[in-house]
Amino acid sequence: MTRYFRSLLIGAAMALAATPALAHSTVKNTVPASGSILPASPGEITINFNEAARITSIILIAPGQPERKLDVMPSGSSTSFMVHDPKLATGRNEIKWKALSKDGHPIEGSIIIVIKPGAVPSSPPPAKNHDHH
């Protein structure tokens, strides 16, 4: 029976030691924020991560247009990435990104920006943090 509990304790210790490795990079914020309504295409879109990541692709899906690959800077590992002059179309634009987390795991997400000529620029309220420690 002692051997069983020793194995159980070793297993629990290994699981706890591996927990930090499960924390992937996440997006802290984007500028403009996802859900923004703008009167014209922004001059730049910025994606900020909580820790270093590496963007592997960014694709723009716009109304009535074929998917278009966007260029991102920098091309290597960073916590902040910029797309200069994305030329967003009138209507709903979805910017889908894929990246490699600092720990090497693939992560992905999207940013929705609506271009509505004549609109007063608006951003959604910041999301509330629901982390429970």
What does this structure look like?
The chain is mainly beta and 133 residues long. It has a domain at 23-115: Immunoglobulin-like (Sandwich). It is built from one helix and seven strands; from the N terminus they run αβββββββ. It has one helix spanning 2-18, and strands at 27-31, 36-38, 44-61, 68-69, 78-84, 91-101, 106-115. Strands 1, 2, 3, 4, 5, 6 and 7 form a seven-stranded mixed sheet that branches. A hairpin with a 6-residue loop joins strand 3 (44-61) and strand 4 (68-69). The chain is globular and about 70 Å long. It starts with a helix and ends in an 18-residue tail after the last strand.
| CATH level 3 topology of the domain at 23-115 | Immunoglobulin-like
H and E order:
HEEEEEEE
Shape summary? globular
- Count the E strands: 7
How many DSSP H or I helices? 1
Rg is 20 Å
Specify the oligomeric state: single chain
Beta-strand content estimate = 35-45%
**First-last Cα distance:** 34 Å
Low-confidence stretches: 12-21, 129-133
Query: What CATH first level of the domain at 23-115 would be assigned?
Result: Mainly Beta
Q: Averaging pLDDT over every residue, what do you get?
A: 84
CATH-scheme architecture of the domain at 23-115: Sandwich
